[in-house]
UniProtKB/TrEMBL annotation:
Lineage of the species this protein comes from: Eukaryota, Sar, Stramenopiles, Ochrophyta, Bacillariophyta
Superkingdom of source: Eukaryota
N6-(pyridoxal phosphate)lysine sites (modified residues): 386
Protein name (record): glutamate decarboxylase
Secretion signal, residue range per the UniProt entry: none
Length: 648
C-alpha cells in the first residue's frame, strides 16, 4: 500500500524504495510507534499531497531517531539502564512464585538475587544433621562441577574422553569393593547414576531379568507365561524409600524382615532374612549402613546363609551344556569369581560404600567381608554424594560381571569409531557427578578418606558420649543410645529420650524445639507402611510404631567445634522442654485455658494480663503445635502415594 501510494505520484524508483524508504519507514514505525502512521494514511487517502512535506517529515523523524539512538547508546555505555541496586530496580517487586513466564527478561545479577532470596529461606544445610548428602565443596571442585555441567555424559561420540574418565572412576570404585577383574583388561562393569536410588533400581532390574530367564527355564515357561509370575525381593524393614520405588515401579513383591532395635541395633538377622527366600526371589538385599542408625547388616553372614540355601535347594544357574558347565567351573576356579548360584545379594551401600572400606584399611573393619570378596554378592550400589564426598546427584552401581547380569539392562550405543554400554535409566545427563567424584578420589586418596572417616567416627563418639551422660533432674539418664557404636557402623548417633522418664514430649518435639537454635536433627516415628500389605506397621520387631527416635549424621562438615555447640544446644533445649511441664501434649488444654482466662480478664478491668515466663514459653509451644498439626494434615492428604518419612 505504502509502496503504491508513494511511488506513483512522486515517481520514486523501486530501488530507492527498497534501499532507503522501506527500511526507514520500518525503523521509524518500530521505534516511534508510528508517528508517521497518521501522516502516511493521510497521504494514502489524499491524492494531492506534497512531496516536499513527506521528505521534510522523514528528515525530521530521522533526526529525532538519531538523537534517540545516540542517547540510548550513551546510556548503555554508562551502564545507566542496568546499573542500579536490586531494591531500586523494577524487579524488586516482581513476584517469586509464578504461574507464567514473565513477558520481559531481567538483568542476570538480579535473577541471581531472586534465586538467592529463595534459597535464603531454606534451612542452613551446614547445620542439617538429618541428611547424608554432602554439602561442602572446594573452590576447585566447583570449577570441575561447572565443566561437567556442560558435558552430556550420555553422548559417547562427542565426549569419548569424558566417558573414559567416567569408566576410570567406575574402575577405582569397583576395585575398592574388590570386584573380580574383568577379562582382557576390560573396564569393570558399572555406571555412574543419579544417587543410590537409580543404582538400586538398575540392580533390581538386572536381577529381575536374570531371575526371569532362570525361572522360565526351570519351569518350562514361554516368554509370555513368565510375565504372569511376580518375583520378590527380600530386605530388612529398615530399608530406604528407594526400594519402595522398585517395588512399585517394577512390580516386585516386598518380602520384609523386621530387625530388632534394642538387641541387634537394627542389624538384620541373616538367618531370618535368607529364610524368606523362595524360587521367586530375585535377590536378598543387605544394607551397609541403614539410614536410621547407620548400623551394618551382616553381609558376611547373609552370604554364608545364602550359600547353604543355594546348595540345599540346588538353585544353580541352569547351563544348557554339561560341557559348558565344566568349562565354567574351571573358569570359576581359575578366576575365583564368576557366580554360578542363582540367589545372590545386592549390597545397598549407599552410605557404607565409602566408609566400610576405609574403616577396614585403618584396622577397624567389619568381622567379615561385605563386598565382592563374598561369592554371592552380585551387585553393589552407593551414593557418591554421601560419604563419597561428591556433588549431589552422584551415585554408583557396580556389577560382578556383565554376563547374565549387567547385560540384561545394557543398551549398546554405537558412535563414530566404537560402541559403549549404557546401563542407566535415562540417557542425557551432566558429567558433574563423575567429574567431581574423580576429583575427590584423586584429591583425597585412600589416606585422605581414611583419616576423614576416622575423624567423623571420633566426632560421633564425642556426641554419643555427651548425650549418653546427660541426666534428668531426677537422676535418670536422659537418653537411650540406639546406634551400633564405634565399629561396624556409619558415623551416626541415634538415640531416643529415655522412655522410663515418662516425658510429655518426644524425639520429634525435640527436633522442632532444637530447630530454634538453627540445628536440624531428624526425629522419626518407628512405623512404616508395609508395601506388601499396605498396612501401617512397626518397623522393628521389639518397639511399637508410636515410639520415636532421632539421628545425627556426622557428615564431614560437622567439625568437633560444631558438634560441641550442638551438644550444648540439645542440653539447653531439654531444659526448656522440661520447663513446659505438661509439654506438647498439653498444649491444646493450655490454649483453651488461656483463651478462657483472657476472656475473663477482658471483662474485668485493671487486671494485669499474664506476662510471666510460662506465658512466653506457651506462646512458643503454640507455634510448634500448629506446625505439627500442619504436618499431620499434609500426611493425611497424600493417601494413595508412598508415605515415607525417610530423608536421604
Ligand atoms: C540414601 C540411601 C538410599 C538412596 O540414596 P540416594 O542417593 O538418595 O538416591 C538408598 N539406600 C540407603 C541405605 C540410603 O541410605
Amino acid at each position: 500500500m505504502i509502496q503504491y501510494s508513494i511511488t506513483r505520484p512522486l515517481d520514486i524508483t523501486q530501488s530507492t524504495i527498497d534501499r532507503v524508504l522501506k527500511p526507514l519507514v520500518r525503523l521509524v514505525a518500530a521505534l516511534t510507534d508510528c508517528h508517521l502512521r497518521p501522516l502516511i494514511s493521510n497521504l494514502m487517502s489524499d491524492e494531492t499531497f506534497d512531496k516536499d512535506a513527506i521528505i521534510t517529515a522523514l528528515v525530521e523523524e530521522t533526526r529525532k531517531l538519531r538523537a534517540m539512538v545516540s542517547k540510548l547508546e550513551e546510556k548503555i555505555e554508562h551502564g545507566e539502564a542496568f546499573d542500579t541496586t536490586f531494591a531500586a530496580s523494577k524487579y524488586a517487586s516482581r513476584h517469586l512464585k509464578r504461574e507464567e513466564i514473565p513477558s520481559d527478561g531481567m538483568p542476570a545479577k538480579h535473577v541471581v538475587r531472586l534465586i538467592n532470596d529463595v534459597h535464603l529461606c531454606d534451612f542452613n544445610p551446614l547445620l542439617n544433621t538429618s541428611s547424608y548428602v554432602n554439602v561442602t565443596s572446594e573452590e576447585e571442585e566447583q570449577a570441575v562441577a561447572l565443566i561437567g555441567a556442560q558435558i552430556n555424559i550420555a553422548d559417547a561420540s562427542v565426549y569419548p574422553s569424558s566417558i573414559e574418565l567416567h569408566n576410570s572412576t567406575v574402575n577405582m570404585i569397583a576395585n575398592l569393593w574388590h570386584a573380580p577383574k574383568p577379562p582382557n583388561g576390560q573396564d569393570y562393569v558399572g555406571s555412574g547414576t543419579v544417587g543410590s536410588t537409580e543404582a538400586c533400581l538398575l540392580a533390581g532390574l538386572a536381577l529381575k531379568f536374570r531371575w526371569r530367564k532362570w525361572y522360565a527355564k526351570r519351569h518350562n515357561l514361554t516368554d509370555h507365561e513368565i510375565l504372569a509370575v511376580r518375583p520378590n525381593l527380600v530386605i530388612s524393614s529398615a530399608y530406604q524409600a528407594a526400594w519402595e520405588k522398585l517395588f512399585r515401579y517394577f512390580d516386585v513383591e516386598a518380602k520384609i524382615v523386621k530387625p530388632n532395635l534394642l538387641k541387634d541395633k537394627m542389624a538384620v538377622n541373616a538367618k531370618n532374612l535368607v529364610a524368606q527366600c523362595d524360587e521367586k526371589t530375585i535377590a536378598v538385599v543387605g544394607i551397609l549402613g541403614n539410614h536410621y542408625n547407620g548400623n551394618y547388616d551382616p553381609i558376611w553372614d547373609i552370604d554364608k546363609e545364602l550359600a547353604l540355601l543355594n546348595a540345599e535347594k540346588g538353585w544353580q544357574i541352569v547351563r544348557f551344556l554339561e560341557f559348558m558347565t565344566l568349562i565354567v567351573i574351571v573358569h570359576v576356579l581359575l578366576t575365583q569369581c564368576h557366580v554360578a548360584l542363582q540367589k545372590g545379594i545386592h549390597v545397598d551401600a549407599a552410605s557404607g560404600g565409602f566408609v566400610a572400606p576405609f574403616q577396614e584399611l585403618s584396622g577397624k573393619g567389619t568381622p567379615g567381608h561385605y563386598d565382592f570378596r563374598l561369592p554371592n554378592v552380585l551387585s553393589i550400589s552407593s551414593s557418591g554424594h554421601k560419604f563419597g564426598e561428591s556433588i549431589c546427584g552422584t551415585g554408583w552401581i557396580v556389577f560382578r560381571q556383565r554376563e547374565d547380569l549387567a547385560e540384561h539392562i545394557a543398551v549398546t550405543v554405537t558412535y563414530l569409531g566404537g560402541s559403549s554400554d549404557s546401563l542407566t535409566l535415562n540417557f542425557s545427563r551432566p558429567a558433574s557427578g563423575p567429574y567431581v567424584q574423580y576429583y575427590k578420589l584423586m584429591r583425597l586418596g585412600k589416606e585422605g578418606y581414611m583419616t576423614k572417616v576416622e575423624n567423623q567416627m571420633k566426632v560421633a563418639a564425642y556426641l554419643r558420649n555427651f548425650i549418653s551422660n546427660l541426666t534428668h533432674p531426677n537422676g535418670q539418664k536422659r537418653f537411650q543410645i540406639l546406634d551400633g557404636g564405634d565399629t561396624c557402623c556409619l558415623p551416626v548417633v541415634s538415640a531416643r529420650l529415655n522412655p522410663d522418664l515418662g516425658l510429655h514430649y518426644d524425639d520429634k518435639d525435640l527436633q522442632h524445639a532444637l530447630s530454634e537454635s538453627h540445628w536440624y536433627v531428624s526425629g522419626y516415628s518407628l512405623g512404616f507402611e508395609n508395601p506388601a500389605t499396605f498396612e501401617f506397621e512397626d518397623i522393628f520387631s521389639d518397639i511399637d510404631q508410636a515410639s520415636t527416635m532421632f539421628r545425627i549424621v556426622v557428615k564431614s562438615n560437622l567439625s568437633q567445634g560444631l558438634a560441641e555447640n550442638l551438644a550444648h544446644k540439645i542440653k539447653e533445649t531439654l531444659a526448656v522442654l522440661d520447663d513446659l511441664d505438661e509439654g506438647y501434649e498439653g498444649v491444646k488444654q493450655k490454649i483453651a485455658a488461656m483463651k478462657a482466662k483472657a476472656a475473663v480478664l477482658s471483662e474485668i478491668p485493671n487486671v494485669h494480663k499474664p506476662t510471666d515466663k510460662r506465658f512466653k514459653a506457651l506462646a512458643k509451644t503454640v507455634l510448634f503445635s500448629k506446625h505439627m498439626e500442619r504436618k499431620k494434615k499434609e500426611r493425611s492428604n497424600i493417601s494413595g502415594s508412598i508415605v515415607s518419612q525417610a530423608t536421604c
